[in-house]
Design brief:
homotrimer, 358 residues, alpha/beta, Dna Ligase, domain 1, 5-stranded antiparallel β-sheet, 4-stranded parallel β-sheet, 32% helix, 22% strand, globular
Chain lengths: 358, 358, 358
């Protein structure tokens, strides 16, 4: 796949000056729409009827028009793709869209995607994902390939981006049983990744690779609230043991966080090296938002256990106000949704949409 | 009480054009005053001498004038009420005022209250409170009516809004003893509510019911820091067990939090259904701020264990900057204090104060 | 030392109108530079080559020029001090600079320091530090002078500001062993302080003493994320015990937090009394930023276990946006870096740099 674009040119037939952002419902849609509004960039909302009625119909001023689908798979239909192409739409992919549509169908979509679509395939495979990080020279947790290699607590992760659902914590003792259970659920041993569980502060860093400005920007950081573990850890120890509930890691919410300034040396270096590794691996730089997700250990090492090749929902915590980092770059409140709209606007004006899409 | 307004018309004799906001000290007074200032709405501060000297005297530019009381009960006196009526004052009630004055005296105050005063009586009774939520079709934790029904950890809650003080965590084994202890302190079994303890992410959602705009807005979300449980949970397990300190839940501080966007479907629906249920139950909609307080479980169910029929202190985290949600509605930084002042200003100008007061 | 200024006049030969802020790299440098930019105050960055290349070279618009050092000790050289004096530079000290240069050399620097340099010596001694707090009438945790006095968990703190690194949690049983281990590492018993471990909500309050406005302002609050304890406490209790890892307290990141409004009575009083005690003790008020760091107990007592006589990194969480407290004072987004630049600008214009420096 290295460097091999699809057989078609996603932007062919597009009138760049009239291009619009196409924002799929859920995940980070509201800030993406708000960002487009801030920058006076036209944005269409793509939503299933249910999402539309329950959430987005409350905010009609945020999009120039809605494209209502009966189901997400309709987005892959010739008709809807044709309609979006007629609008000169550039689709902003996010984790929920990957989950709804599946990475294969998203990869094959004949609509230009903002960002690097070739990351979708890598992300779908937990092992390739970690390889890319290591190839970038980024510190990662140890991968446990055989249960007997586990020397402490491990986290067992399933394929795909499901917001942490189904992740399991295990010990060297319980790991064989956990793996067996997952195999019974139909997961193959190859799909699952077992990682050393890192004990420290969870830090999710948001980056933006700007082809227009020729740089990687730090947009912000968040930390996650996960269910049930947040509640479980807050029960007195004696009661936890009495309950014997297994911890689960469904991401429910996010909170702003700011790292010690000295960590920025590592954080900047990781962000830049990741962008370079992505370009080496796929033939394209990230072209927009991405995120490195990890834990800072007591010796201040930042170990990355996962990445997202697109906007992460943790950026939602800064909608409207900007972040302690974007204020270093800009004189107006910039959050990820707006940053994307800013880049899109400039690319449009300069006829450079090919530089921010794949 | 359904639909029965007090025998007097709270706004009778008022010159609506000259109406002022009356903001009681403590809780969320600073953001209420700041919000009024942003909107150029006149605001008087009502404070005891002690509150005034220790806090509000430092911010004289935030209010047009202070009304200093010797004690909170003075607010219920004919003299002070008369004085406030002469100012055309609309009182913004909050949890601390309920605690200082008692809900009965607040309910009977002959000053227009911003919001729905009839909720005060419902809120004073933990059982009616939960009924209203269930009547709205909102998911709630199971109420344990007899100790032997407890199958896991439970939380034992006392009547009134005291910021979590006195709440007790119990297990099926310790519950009878805890109830006995509370009875010895003078609480009746009817006043106390025992709820299934929910294990997940605590999410406090702030709403604003706008009679002027005819809609329910999401203002923001926070999560709470409680003492001693926050510190207790942060001790290593072995040490916790050695200490054997009982957890307590006094609310000390708040932090911003943002829910996964897909949860907004539930959050919006809860907010709207709550407003409808309040209107069915009391004859008036909420007319301003309220909050639903709950836990998001690992299956992403949002269970509400409590509500506040008024502004909650968790909204303080957004003073001045606006929230990731208000930026979806407005082109300026809007936080709860300012949102209230905006509604008040519009109601004044349109002679519609009756729509936002009771 | 009480009231004894150094033998030289730090501002002698300075052209106050042309004074610049000198901001040392790391810690809170980015917000200090951004604040200067907001206020159109000239600012030079002082950085080692490594800091410069890895972080600050990415933000060249934030400073008027960089002063690049081969090592931090160069800052104490006659040549660099001369160069800074020629620029009419006022140095903004912070915790990292104290760590890099050592408090003695910083204290002896012949460059005016923004703030009160005499606090450096007090802060270097954990016992004098606590005395100053007690002398101010601020509640503090009990100090354990002999191991046998410990009745519950204690925290063992090393001298100097190292962001919590090396702090140890101990019990009455483990304390003698922990002390022994530290003595073997070369620490004397006098350097170490053993404090009662406080169980509650950790609250770090940021203040600004303004000689220009003649008042103490609350700038904001944060809470800290520490490694490994944050991760350790999030492991199920059974697993924690199996791991038997000792907790560590390296500060990694910060999150915004807002205290209950009623706590402001204590918080304001502490801030003002601390400023007075500093003036009594050193002959100078704090003249700028400082911080009180403590725990709020379940009875809402705020006990302070540490202070910083300078800007703390927790203020970084508000860069650009302002805080829920600064919005009470100002009509523009003010964060600590900008607040410092505002005071500096006013002092320059009024020829009052001596009031904000030592």
């Amino acid at each position: 796949m290295r460097g091999s674009p699809p057989g078609w040119d996603a932007l062919s037939g597009y009138d760049q000056q009239r291009a619009v952002l196409a924002v799929p419902a859920s995940h980070s849609a509201l800030q993406l729409l708000r960002g487009a509004l801030d920058e006076k960039v036209p944005a269409v909302l793509i939503a299933t009827r249910s999402h539309y009625e329950r959430i987005y119909s409350r905010f009609p001023w945020l999009y120039t028009r809605p494209v209502i689908l009966d189901s997400w798979s309709e987005l892959a239909s010739r008709r809807v793709q044709q309609r979006l192409r007629e609008m000169n739409a550039v689709l902003v992919p996010h984790g929920s869209l990957v989950e709804y549509l599946g990475w294969r169908r998203l990869l094959e979509l004949e609509i230009p995607l903002l960002g690097n679509r070739y990351l979708l395939e890598i992300e779908a495979d937990q092992h390739r994902k970690m390889s890319l990080l290591r190839e970038a020279g980024i510190e990662t947790p140890r991968t446990v390939t055989r249960p007997e290699e586990a020397t402490g607590p491990v986290i067992v992760k399933l394929p795909g981006a499901k917001g942490g659902r189904g992740y399991r914590l295990a010990t060297p003792e319980t790991l064989p049983r956990v793996l067996e259970e997952l195999e019974k659920l139909g997961y193959t041993r190859e799909e699952i990744i077992v990682q050393e569980y890192l004990v420290g502060v969870r830090l999710y860093t948001h980056y933006f690779h700007s082809p227009i400005y020729g740089r990687v920007e730090i947009i912000g950081m968040d930390t996650r609230h996960e269910s049930n573990i947040d509640g479980l850890a807050r029960l007195p120890a004696a009661l936890q043991q009495q309950l014997a509930t297994e911890p689960t890691y469904t991401v429910v919410a996010n909170t702003p966080i700011v790292a010690r300034e000295s960590l920025l040396a590592t954080i900047i270096s990781y962000g830049e090296r990741f962008a370079e590794a992505v370009e080496r691996e796929t033939g394209h730089p990230p072209k927009g938002p991405y995120s490195l997700e990890g834990v800072v250990l007591e010796d201040l090492t930042y170990k990355i256990f996962e990445f997202s090749g697109r906007i992460v929902a943790g950026t939602n915590v800064y909608t409207g106000t900007g972040t302690p980092y974007t204020w270093l770059y800009w004189d107006k409140p910039v959050y990820m949704g707006r940053r994307i709209a800013m880049e899109f606007k400039q690319a449009k004006e300069r006829h450079r949409l090919q530089d921010i899409t794949t």
